[in-house]
Amino acid sequence: xxxxxxxxxxxPRPQDRDYYQGPVVMRRSKVPGSTxxxxxxxxxxxxxxxxxxxxxxxxxxxxxxxxxxxxxxxGPAVSVFGSARSAADSPEYRLAAEVGxxxxxxxxxVITGGGPGAMEGANKGALEAGGTSVGLGIELPFEAGLNPxxxxxxxxxxxxxxxxxxxxxxxxxxxxxxxFGTLDELxxxxxxxxxxxxxxxxxxxxxxxxxxxxxDWLRDTAARSGTxxxxxxxxxxxxxxxxxxxxxxxxxxxxxxxxxxxxxxxxE
Length: 268
Prior knowledge:
By secondary structure, this protein is an alpha/beta fold. It has 9 helices and 9 strands. It has helices spanning 7-10, 36-41, 49-71, 91-105, 118-128, 159-168, 180-194, 208-225, 242-256; strands spanning 19-21, 24-26, 77-81, 109-112, 133-138, 152-156, 173-175, 203-206, 236-239. The chain has a 7-stranded parallel sheet, sandwiched between helices. The radius of gyration is 19 Å and the shape is globular. It starts with 6 loop residues before the first helix and ends in a 12-residue tail after the last helix.
């Protein structure tokens, strides 16, 4: 059973913490009342957006440039997703740490969203195993920047720029139990593979009790109704074993001819 913390009672008010907007840190009265993404997507009100949106393109461009520059020499990496609400003493947090450690042993850097919960667990496992721990943060009204186990971090204003980095610099995804954000990344990745926008990109779900019902629904309802192709369900691998999850990534790399990083250990 997934254990979560009630963020509604533990999350500090925006004015009580550091607020990250790209490379800028704001505190107290300087914390804005809305996020950059929110202002971009909100079409209500006056026509001022006609004059400001063209300039936003420059900011969007800078986010891609900063992300590409920071991650270009990262080497083989795997993006790990999971709930920000998993407590530090929960099975999900420990599972994430095992995944992060196993990925480093196999020669991969670990990329997460840089937040708390399972993301922090994966970063912690990677860092303690001596690997590269990457966090791609996002400007949100209820999260307080990158977790302390990130040693290479990039903060983004725009979700779409951040999402590009998760896919572009990863050899695959490992997905732990999570909520809407995790589901968003999961199904976007499946769609990119299914439409052949990315190739040889393994996607591994860790936690059969958590993900089993979703896969049953996809198989028994969506596939049977014809809204998804049943063969596309093979794009997803389900396991409870962190070593097996990493093994799927390694084997896909071998098939793709990417091989291992120097010093990597094949997961037993």
